[in-house]
Amino acid sequence: xxxxxxxxxxxxxxxxxxxxxxxxxxxxxxxxxxxxxxxxxxxxxxxxxxxxxxxxxxxxxxxxxxxxxxxxxxxxxxxxxxxxxxxxxxxxxxxxxxxxxxxxxxxxxxxxxxxxxxxxxxxxxxxxxxxxxxxxxxxxxxxxxxxxxxxxxxxxxxxxxxxxxxxxxxxxxxxxxxxxxxxxxxxxxxxxxxxxxxxxxxxxxxxxxxxxxxxxxxxxxxxxxxxxxxxxxxxxxxxxxxxxxxxxxxxxxxxxxxxxxxxxxxxxxxxxxxxxxxxxxxxxxxxxxxxxxxxxxxxxxxxxxxxxxxxxxxxxxxxxxxxxxxxxxxxxxxxxxxxxxxxxxxxxxxxxxxxxxxxxxxxxxxxxxxxxxxxxxxxxxxxxxxxxxxxxxxxxxxxxxxxxxxxxxxxxxxxxxxxxxxxxxxxxxxxxxxxxxxxxxxxxxxxxxxxxxxxxxxxxxxxxxxxxxxxxxxxxxxxxxx
Length: 482
Hints:
Number of strands: 28
Number of helices: 7
Strand content: 35-45%
Helix content: under 10%
Oligomer: single chain
Shape: globular
Radius of gyration: 23 Å
Structural class: mainly beta
């Protein structure tokens, strides 16, 4: 959050750039110490003291306020390179030997600076639900968290959260299967979802088994990149795992990584790695690990295909553990997951190609945007909606989608982003997102903003009708929106 803020959507199910290493509500998956939060050691400012809070049955909230001493401080002026698209395509160009002038000259090489000052008016609220006392195994369910507000390396206001202890007398922890067997797991944050105070298991495999936390590293460039890879490129693919148990496996186990076309039952092995991991321990990072695979993207992968990485823990089922693979009837499964990515040849990238905004269409659950507002508001409970963005033109489209729900008073109800990758001419891209009817009841207008490499296209629809698509910015202006 800068003093002169730039519009940016919150994270959604398909925001590949937002990948914190935890599963919301799964206490084993969080850092056990604030020091283990990625980027914590490089923070610019410490804004509050550390708070250690022990929670017992019942919901609990804590408000964190900026201290007087921190309020007089300001983060450094840091250069911020706008344009997720140009960063990704630029990496591909550099490594593939393509002239950099073909990339987005209005974005790449230009940067802005910002500072952020802090005051005691800045407050953060952390709310934590916990099972109500029901007796038996749920009695005295306690855990301790550490909280601290700070400005990260880029000056962003951040609330650090770590689970540092489990209640030593809580029967749910001490007498459960998590004290009997190990449970190595992928980060699968969408297996469950909240609707009010109730938790439900997803029955949609496409959402439930999507991995969070996958990283692509380019050794030649000494940097991480996005999920758009180029043919012949050399990458290190990092798959994070954690042990959702107090018990460590007796020995090592294998993690396999493959790739496949979307929804295909056939997959091609990239490699297998042997892994050793510990059990959960207070204040230690012993139950976390990152499994790395070196991969050169093969020549026979076509950029027109939707591709997915497939990660499997203990693929030969040699480990006696709490959970195996996901199944609609066993939603706790955590050994299998996928992560979408795209592959292109350098000469196939849509550099500087203008896209006709009239060729871009977007439907949700087979309806127009305006129709879906009314439909979603009338549903009895939260549901998974499918969005399809189509490219009816001939020019390939590489884009990021921002979907904004706007109330009648122009207040933003909700918003998220999705890196939709490349859509070839005549093709489309689909993804699913969680829809809450209560939010859609407040929605008057739905806005889809599509950031391409040459322009920004906006599609808008309201309950009263649809506004025609328009190209709203040239690439020189686009950098301020990214």
